Structures are given as structure tokens and as C-alpha cells.
Amino acid sequence: MHRVGIIANPARPVVRRLIPELVRILSSRSGKPSLSADLAAMVSDDASRRECVIVDSDDRVVAEADWVIAIGGDGTLLKTARLVGASGIPILGVNSGKLGFMMQTTPDELGDALELVFEEKYSLDRRLVLQGRTENGAAGDADAGEVFSALNDIVIDKGSICRVIELGIYINDEYVNDVVADGLIVSTPTGSTAYSLAAGGPILAPDMEAIVVSPICPHTLSNRAMVLAARDRIRIEVRADHPDLLLTVDGQQNVIIQPGATVELCRANHAINLIRFTDRSFYDVLRTKLKWGER
Looking at 58, 74, 153, 250, which residue is catalytic? Predict the structure, then answer.
């Protein structure tokens, strides 16, 4: 891996400090890094700017790269995963946010982390991806049958109306249950520590072959989160007495759906590759982020 792309949240103060140093390290070790114009503007030295490949969008950053550094919170990594898509380009997450469950290193440790990557002392953590598709009742012809991919979760929500909705759940074409709730979260193991966890869902190890279905504030207490096999196909029939329900992909992409819509979900054919180092396990991350073991 030689060509490196940089995706970062420019609103974070640490990014302005980090970008010039990152450009210096990468240009000396792996060739010119690719980055967008707003990030390149943080490099004030003209000589250093000449060591960058400056492009007009983050899509182009990824297109020019063999691997990508994502600097920010989990939202930045989710955005990067969406840009990478099915290409298989590895991602190194650098946490400058709050929790950063998916991030592997911090700005202070980035120099050491880059050395490990250059020396190929890392592994690729293949993360399961969800694929979703809407049918019947999606708002507008452009959204009907649209396909989505999510590294974290796909959420069906009641929208702006403070009223529960009814969702019919089918697994592998077998009717399972009608859930009356504020909505439903269908999560990957990666997303099990995100919205699904807040809704009472279980924490899954990220390498599990599983999908979690978690109701949001269900009207009936017997409606609980379910852990399904990754091979299962899920169909959700959306029933409500008000329009403009919301389907959200990874908390970033929104689609308005209407009563009568059907949402079909399954495992995608591709995975997202996250760069991991052997000295930091998933359980170490859990202890740190969730403050387990503290008195």
C-alpha cells in the first residue's frame, strides 16, 4: 500500500494541527498523499503543499488512494466507509471525537501507528455490511427500489410525528411478529455499540456473523432485541397512519418512506476493511470507552 488518502472533519481543532505533520510524514514515506482542498488549505508551507495531491472532493481522495486515513469521530469513519464502498480499500481510523469505537488510534499515537502500517505490522479487520432496499411506498420514483449499504445500522423511524408505528417483521419470508414502537434498528456487529446499544440491544464482538434487530421504545415489553444469523434475509412492512416516515442509513443518509413501504435487508456482498493493531483488542476498547472496571 503506497498511495494514501486523508479524510478528516475540518471542524475539529486537532485536524488543523495534525494535517501539516501528517503530510510531511506521508510524503517522506509513501509518496504524495491525496486530500481535499479544504484540508490542503491547512498546510501553509508552499513546499509541503507541492507534496500533496489536491482534489476537489472526498470521492476523488478515495479514488486516488490505496488506503485511507479517517480523522474524526465514528461519523467520519462511517462517511469514509460509504466512500470506499465495495472497493476493499483499508481504512485507518484516528479518533479526535468522543467515543470512537471504530477508531484504532489517536492523534498523539498517530506517528507510531503509521510506522506499524509502513512496516506491515497490522491486520485487516473485515466488518460485515448491511444492504437494504425499499419497495412500494417510497417517496418519489427516484427512491423506489433504492439500494443502501450500512456499516453500522439501518433505522426506520416514526419521523417528526409523535406517534408509534406498526412494523411487520419477516425473516426468510416467515412471519415473525408485528412490532408497535417508535421504530426499529437493524444493526451489524459493528453497530451493536451504537444506537442499538442505546435502545437496549446486546453488544456483539465485531467479527461475529450476526445481525441485531432492536425495537425503539416498543409499546409491548415482550418485544425485545433479536440476534439473527448473518445469512438471514429480513423484510419489514411499514404500517402507519401518518406519512413521511424516515429511513436512516448509518445516521448520515436519509430517505423518506410512506405507509405501505417494504424494506428488505440482508448481508451485503462486500465488507469494510479496518486497519487493526494486535496490541489493542475489542475488549480493551470496550473497557476504555464504556469505563468498565472503574470504581
Answer: 74
